[in-house]
Amino acid sequence: MNRREFLSSTAATVAAGTLMPRALADVAPQKSDGMNYAPRGKPNPVVKPGEFMVAAVRLDHGHIYGMCNGLTEAGATLKWVYDPDPKKTEVFRARYPEARAARSLDEVLADPEVRLVAAAAVTSERGPLGCQVMEAGKDYFTDKAPFTTMAQLEQARAVVARTGRKYMVYYSERLHNESAMFATDLVEQGAIGRVIHVINIAPHRLSKATRPDWFFQREKFGGILCDLGSHQFEQFLAYSGSSDATVSHAAIGNFNNPDHPGFEDFGEACLTGSSGALDYVRVDWFTPDGLSTWGDGRTFILGTRGTIELRKYVDIARDPVGDHLYIADEKGERHLSVAGQVGYRFFGEFILDCLNRTEKAMTQAHAFKAGELCLRAQAAAIRVT
């Protein structure tokens, strides 16, 4: 069953008020380490081999593997990899042996065949790197958060306007999660009416001993609402249909990491969207060791005619496989297990956007607005202890 057939049949199931059976597709177990969590989907190429060449550079965060999984499954050809640390390059090539090790970033940027550069640099370096990539005439795909300062955001906006290149962001907690993408479809179809409130709960496992030094330095990671919050603000914009939002409350704290005083292990924020919808976000680094996955991420969407709850990565103590969607409306209650059925369409749509200069996968304004909101929330946050 392809995605279109699945959406059609599932929409009918939702409308009829019947229970959808659990997916039978093979689904890889969730990983315990969020920094190296890299979902794999079924290959669904939108281009022929060699038609869309990409490069991976600056391998400072493990999300680069999820980004490259999504791109190559959609048909991209991974031509180059570059990192100043040859050990990182070696590890990357063990997974992607087709990628040639570049001697420098300039070698990658000078290759006219490379259309897109994917990167997971230290957070504070993502904005300047993206501008360098776009100035070289290539589109840019960065790990979240896309910026740590408003000056970086404004510079990127100016370079996009001048060059016409794309600055796209890997907001993986929606784009690389099947339940979250299916909820996107249901909301757009009006399954729960007008969205009036969204709650995002996003705990993460700290895995302190394996984190690099930069991860704990405020000027480099940007703060918890900038880092983890970027996912949540992007989801609110998508689910509520808002093009902008204001921050009405934000708070941050360091409750359990006194050895890293600049670090933040807790954050929360409240937003009011331009659509009139409201949002509450909680992010933290307190996933307990006993949980089977790196975080029990939950999303609650309240509409005028129903509610949706997402249990993204685990249905705690019941099912270690994630991608559970619960919906209630005037017809009743349903549980939909969508793992292995929805896929990750963002990557194919993004490749086609790069080729056709369209904005089907995500608009540039949306990607930048989510990045702006996390900066505004971080700047407005009060510090609690």
Describe this structure in words.
The structure is a single chain. The chain has 385 residues and is α/β, with parallel strands linked by helices. It has helices at 3-16, 63-73, 86-95, 105-109, 126-135, 150-163, 172-175, 178-188, 218-221, 224-227, 229-240, 345-356, 364-380; strands at 53-59, 77-82, 100-101, 114-120, 139-143, 167-170, 195-203, 245-253, 266-273, 278-284, 298-303, 306-311, 324-329, 332-337, 382-384. The chain has 2 domains: 35-172 and 346-363, NAD(P)-binding Rossmann-like Domain (Rossmann fold, 3-Layer(aba) Sandwich), CATH 3.40.50.720; 176-344 and 375-384, Dihydrodipicolinate Reductase, domain 2 (2-Layer Sandwich), CATH 3.30.360.10. It is built from 13 helices and 15 strands. The chain has a 9-stranded mixed sheet with strand order 14-13-12-11-7-10-9-8-15, covered by helices on one side. It has a 6-stranded parallel sheet with strand order 3-2-1-4-5-6, with helices on both faces. Helix 11 (229-240) packs across helix 13 (364-380). The longest helix is centred in the C-terminal third of the chain and has 17 residues, at 364-380.
How many helices? The count is 13
Unreliable runs: 15-30
Under CATH, the topology of the largest domain is which?
Dihydrodipicolinate Reductase, domain 2
- Give the averaged pLDDT, no decimals: 92
CATH class (first level) name of the largest domain = Alpha Beta
- For the record, the count of structural domains works out to 2
**CATH architectural label of the largest domain:** 2-Layer Sandwich
Report the major sheet.
9 strands, mixed
Strand content: 15-25%
The H-level CATH homologous superfamily of the largest domain, spelled out, is Dihydrodipicolinate Reductase, domain 2
3D shape: globular
Helix/strand-derived class? alpha/beta
What is the terminal-to-terminal distance? Answer: 51 Å
Helix content, binned percent: 25-40%
